[in-house]
Amino acid sequence: MFTNRTINILIPIISVILGLLSGAIIMLVFGYNPVAGYGALWEGAFGDSYFFGETIRMVTPYILSGLAVAFALRTGLLNIGVEGQVFVGWLASVWVGVAFDLPMAIHLPLAIIAAAAAGAFWGFIPGILKAKLGVHEVIVTIMMNYIALYTTNAIVRHVITDGEDQTENIADSASLASTWLAEMTFYSRMHYGILIALFMALVMWFILNKTSRGFELRSVGYNPFASNYAGMSVSKNIILAMMISGAFAGLAGAMEGLGTYGYLASKSGFTNIGFEGIAVALLGANTALGVVLAAFLFGILKIGALNMPTGAGVPTELVEIVIALIIFFVASSYMIRWFILRFKKEGK
Amino acid sequence: MKNRRFLLILALLLSIGFVLAACGSSDDGESSGDGGDSGEGSTEGGEESSEDFSVAMVTDVGGVDDKSFNQSSWEGLQAFGEENGLEEGEGYDYAQSDSEGDYTTNISRLVRQDYDLIYGIGYLLQPALEEVAEQNPDTNFGLVDSVSEVENIVSITFKEQEGSFLAGVAAALKTETDKIGFVGGEDGSLIRKFESGYVAGAKSINPDIEIDIQYAESFAAADRGKLIASNMYNNDIDVIYHASGATGNGVFAQAKDIKQNNPDENVWVIGVDRDQHEEGAIGDDNVTLTSMVKRVDVAVNEIATQTMEGDFPGGEVVEYGLEDEAISIAQTNEDAMTEDILSEIESWKEQISNGDITVPSTDEELEEYESSL
């Protein structure tokens, strides 16, 4: 009745529906109208072209951070450090964007590559520690997040600027922003980065599924011992996987630096782009297409939710609970899988 | 077996959750009803209210319940709404920002909902507010705590250094260890104004006083505020002035913890922005020595009234200080603020108002001031 493939597609869909349903129940319990609440959410994400543009803007880094987490997971690594890799990518892209004055054909690719390289470097460190010394990547990447956050702040304050809170705006020749897209969407901050993000999803699919290197990476993820026995270098593949994952994350930072903001301000805390990436990857079942779809869902929720307090009187705190519930149900896909399998047995 | 126990725990947790949720709804019933009504109202009234005046504000990441800056602004808008018979959600409203990325979205959204005057609360919103203001020249904007040169933005600033100076005077008179502390939010020119004034005030009383200055690097990290305060109090510091928004709640929490364990311990907090007297209450004691009150609410209300009357001071910088009573030192804690301290503060205040003293507002001015002592 259900094949494995349909179950894999069903689980995220059921998770989202369950999340939305329990969100509705919570809104009801607290005396708010869930129909009006979700209506406001929909309005807030698609109400007019401005909001649509903002949603796309939000989706762009989510796709890339989701890809970063998904890529690592496919190779058996849990990269919690996407957040930090986003930071260094953001920093690198803005630095290149501010420091140089080059024609666009060189400047923009250079800034983007710098971001990817910075992210890859930030992924390389936990990668090599894991490969050579067996240090667990989760611990290293978590710590690296803080190093990235505070180093970035210090560099913004004392190296790029002279005691300012934010860098200057990047040169136009390094900007992904487009007046055409902005005008079409009533000055939303939508930018060309979405094309890069979608292209990268394609790249990830290609690397993992169509190259022998990708086969090795996946095989190390499934079973490092068997892969070793088969003559693959486990440590080389771990380092490579972390670097590719970090490069995706660095690109997510470049989207913010070159597209959305055009500058880097010193931050008091994490942007959450990297952490949301974990949820995006989980919901997207670690596949390229799944990540793109999940990123769209998260972008819609994030931008739409801003409209719920003013549009339907639902307080922001409740909105966050609803979003958290959806993530909860996604993460508990094991539970849903169990129910489906049970249902399947009874159905027979 | 293991599985069943897990299910049982899950079921228990869920039921507890629902019971708690049900309890919550009884207090929230009324307010939530209002929220629902006004929400519907705003969608219906959106078109017809274009001739009526409406005003909204966008918070920074602190939120309208930060017991400080944002809350004070929101109280100002609420007062304005009440005076003019406006409904929340229709005539006045706020948008909460959870991260830096939300600033532009929130401001643009309010513009698109046809608000006539939109406040950006805090200097952190300046880039976002300027960007949106340039795109929407027909809407009026207000920026609190920073100066913008855009035509349709009115900049509202305060002479925080003057109030902080008096807070420094109070701290220096109150301390028994001659060690006082300062907890700042995010480092930047605004909070430096607080710091410079405070240091200058304290050193005017006692040039040898030790002042520990720490920045929490956030306006919304109560945990870090608590940690810093704990370190300071451990190092014999007995008065801490915080200029850190919601981060300061941690400073209060730490002072209250100490006071609870030992009511004879001498620990004081100087609040900021609002009179934070109630934050410091612990049993019969109160750890709030005083507060550097910055009446953002008055400013927000005044500018909104002017704008409603068609008198929007766009492009101007409106500065509030001691003489407007927009900056003051709270005297709510009568036991702690003795006659001596009050009379001393009064005399310094006069000297500032007369122009006998120019209170430093930057690091350089502070250095100059200190060398003149």
From TrEMBL, chain A:
Instruction: State its location(s).
Output: Cell membrane
Query: From which lineage does this chain's organism come?
Result: Bacteria, Bacillati, Bacillota, Bacilli, Bacillales
Its membrane topology is listed as:
Multi-pass membrane protein
The protein depicted here goes by the name ABC transporter permease
Where it mainly occurs, coarsely classed, is membrane
The species this protein was found in: Halobacillus campisalis
Bilayer-crossing residues are 7-30, 50-73, 80-100, 106-125, 190-208, 238-265, 277-301, 321-340
Listed CDD domains? TM_PBP1_transp_TpRbsC_like
Q: What Pfam families has UniProt attached to this entry?
A: BPD_transp_2
Keyword entries, A-Z? Cell membrane, Membrane, Transmembrane, Transmembrane helix
Q: Which InterPro entries would you find in this protein's record?
A: ABC_transp_permease (IPR001851)
From TrEMBL, chain B:
The answer to keyword Membrane applying to this record is: yes
Task: Could you list this entry's UniProt keywords, alphabetically sorted.
Answer: Cell membrane, Lipoprotein, Membrane, Signal
Topology relative to the membrane: Lipid-anchor
- Where do the segments described as Disordered lie? 27-51, 354-373
Which one Pfam family would you cite for this protein?
Bmp
Give start-end positions of Gly residues composition bias.
32-44
**Principal subcellular localisation of the protein:** membrane
User: Where does this polypeptide localize?
Assistant: Cell membrane
The segment(s) forming the ABC transporter substrate-binding protein PnrA-like domain are: 54-362
Q: Where is the composition biased (Acidic residues)?
A: 362-373
Q: Tell me which positions the record assigns to the signal sequence.
A: 1-21
Instruction: State the family it belongs to.
Output: Belongs to the BMP lipoprotein family.
What name has this protein been given in UniProt?
BMP family protein
